[in-house]
Amino acid sequence: MSDLYLVDASYFIFRAYYSMPPDMADLDGRPVNALYGFARFLSDLLEQERPLHIAIAFDESLSSSFRNRIYPAYKANREPAPAELKEQFSRCRELCGHFGIAHYSSLEFEADDIIGALATRLRAKGYRSTIVTRDKDLSQLIRAGDQFWDYAAGERIGYHEIPERFGVQPERVADYLALTGDAVDNIPGVPGIGKKTAAVLLKEFTSLDDLYDNLPRVAGLALRGATGVAAKLVAHREVAFLARELTRIACDMPLEVQPGDVRRGPVNLVELAAFYDRADFGSMLRRQAERIAGRSA
């Protein structure tokens, strides 16, 4: 098996934007705090892990994915990204190019879907994935040999550790979130079904479909208020299946990829130095890039 690193860029860019000084600016006065924080994260990742195969997935929009067509209120609770942040996303993609790293984005599909498609297609070609993120939704992609890497917390979680961290095994995470709902993404769930109840249900049943195919069994479970839980499930069946359309990562999105497409290319030190100069980043990141280039030569 070969290792593949799949990075959820948006989390690290947002984190950098809100943690780095807001007055950081390039030579033209444009904000670069998110770009600088992302550059530090990416440089550290490349220097420490030295990945041969890596891809970065970016989100394009909060309101243009296929999920918004299914459910217009999807993520409608989130404030639009500040203009000072939005203009830094394209420069983060440019940075990936200078490092020789494949990067992907789509107006119709989210970064989660891109990561899911890459992990699924390349798993079939003998690759195990390390998904670099803090987004619990991506835990549904983990299979034997893969890792969910919460980089900020320094925690790597394998397939058999997912239930302890997220409540259910990876194959049932989308169903779990469909039952509980997800306030972060404004996804409705079944009213009155909390995390503990959802975990019990999905320990007894293999999926949302299996649960609804066997609803009469719910009332007999060793579950507090089991009869009421069964009634809630009956009353909110459509909501549950709608929610799963939103919580399930679209691994079948159209995306053709071969291992060579995600093999890290050489660092373009000339372009990267010019990029850092324009951003007024000083010499530390440039020296780190030189070390990374030297090790990958």
Structural commentary:
Strand 5 and strand 6 form a beta hairpin. 46% of the residues lie in helices and 9% in strands. It has two domains: 2-165 and 250-296, 3-Layer(aba) Sandwich (Rossmann fold), CATH 3.40.50.1010; 170-247, 5' to 3' exonuclease, C-terminal subdomain (DNA polymerase, domain 1), CATH 1.10.150. The protein is α/β, with parallel strands linked by helices. It contains 13 helices and six strands. The chain has a six-stranded mixed sheet, sandwiched between helices. The chain starts with a strand and ends with a helix. It is elongated, with a radius of gyration of 21 Å.
Can you tag this structure with a few keywords?
297 residues; alpha/beta; Rossmann fold; DNA polymerase, domain 1; 6-stranded mixed sheet; 13 helices; 6 strands; 46% helix; elongated
